[in-house]
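Lab notebook: predicted structure, single chain.

Context: the supervisor wants predicted structures on file for every construct in the current expression panel, including those that have not yet been purified. This is the next one on the list. No modifications to the sequence; it matches the entry in the shared construct table.
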Amino acid sequence: MGTVNPIGDFFGSLKSVCDIIQANRNATKIRIGEGLQRSFGNSYSSLLNKATDVNKLESALVYMYTENHIYGDLNAALRQHDCTYKALTLKDRDMAAYATALLTTLLY
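Prediction complete. Output recorded below exactly as produced.
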């Protein structure tokens, strides 16, 4: 996949993440799936069913958010976000790739 240096340029970094996702849709799907499979089995199944064509990945990400499987955990992680003191749980780490791709899709 790729790397992004977010220092000082939020929108540039957001565009870079979007470009990485679009250029490497299959790798992105695999990376998202690895975490979901461990902690969010229903969302993993939705990813496989809704993104059989990787060109529909972004649509699948939004659809998955509207389901009730990962919604509560993702919103709880966002509500409790504290960059300075919060230690990431296994569930947090397992939804990180999904959350990044979803937020990039929604914001860009």
